[in-house]
Amino acid sequence: MDALILQILNGLDKGSAYALIALGLTLIFGTLGVVNFAHGAIFMIGAFCAVTLSKILNLSYETIDPNQTDFLGNPLKVKTPYVESWFGPEIGASLIDWAVPLAIIFSIPIMLAVGYIMERGLIKHFYKREHADQILVTFGLAIVLQEIIKYFYGANPIQTPSPDALSGVANVGAVFGMDIVYPVWRIVYFCFAAVIIAAVFSFLQFTTFGMVVRAGMADRETVGLLGIDIDRRFTIMFGIAAAVAGLAGVMYTPINSPNYHMGMDFLVLSFVVVVVGGMGSLPGAVLAGFMLGILESFASMNAIKSLIPGIDQIIIYVVAIIILLTRPRGLMGRKGVMEE
């Protein structure tokens, strides 16, 4: 039972990332009808927003400390972060320690701007083009963004730790009389993903803006005939989708050290999640994300891998094949989506 619960927790952890990225992908496809292969790169940019803020907060200047000397008796040069000199040692150290959570605030305007520029500068020219054209141009954009990150940040992963207060483990099984420990930050990531998903669904369900967007997703032409500038609202949704993927990347940095190809690593899996859930279905994307995350977690158990070697690498694709053979539109796909 302990192992079962632990694998479910691991699956929810992986599924959170899959669900957030797939949710953004589905928002873009559902509103604009664009298959955006650059969405993984947006996830990567979000992760490097956290890296950038951490580097900014760690910017330091050198001073000579007469109280510390080297083996020759010379005063040592010590580095003091600027934030510690501006706000005091305690506040400055706290800002550095909480760089990743603070990057949420730092990244939101950046990701909204990235989404807006991407949509207005490139994507809008491919609305009426074939999906194959959209895939090619957005995949090319993803490679360009990947190489830009590689140029400025290097090819090696960059460690970005979680705050000290959230870096340990918690006994999550104590409530049930079990001894199950799990990293605190992974629990935080799952809770964060749940909040973001709930916020997106609430925004679409209970706000006037969201209701118009949902109407536009169902019948864009009719909404336009009512005098509503649906294109502007869809542009905003593209920015929101970019922000969702970016925030997923920000909070994922302590779990997986950011590197320039992390966007590609998640991209293919996320598209599988979207297809399994049903193209254009937001609930389907979230459901499939968590479902496939849990399946992948169980497939990575040593007992399973000893029976079927390599199953952890292909389980998601096997499940996708089975579901699409039995339900061609995915779990919650709508009729007519990508069936022309």
From TrEMBL:
Belongs to the binding-protein-dependent transport system permease family. LivHM subfamily. GO terms for molecular function: transmembrane transporter activity. GO terms for cellular component: plasma membrane. It comes from Shimia thalassica. It is a multi-pass membrane protein. InterPro entries: ABC_transp_permease (IPR001851), BCAA_transport_permease (IPR052157). The keyword Transmembrane helix applies. Keywords: Amino-acid transport, Cell membrane, Membrane, Transmembrane, Transmembrane helix, Transport. It is found in: Cell membrane. It comes from the Bacteria. It holds the Pfam family BPD_transp_2. The lineage of its organism: Bacteria, Pseudomonadati, Pseudomonadota, Alphaproteobacteria, Rhodobacterales. CDD domains: TM_PBP1_LivH_like. The chain crosses the membrane at residues 16-35, 42-61, 95-114, 187-213, 234-255, 267-295, 307-325. One of its GO terms (biological process) is amino acid transport. This is LIV-I protein H.
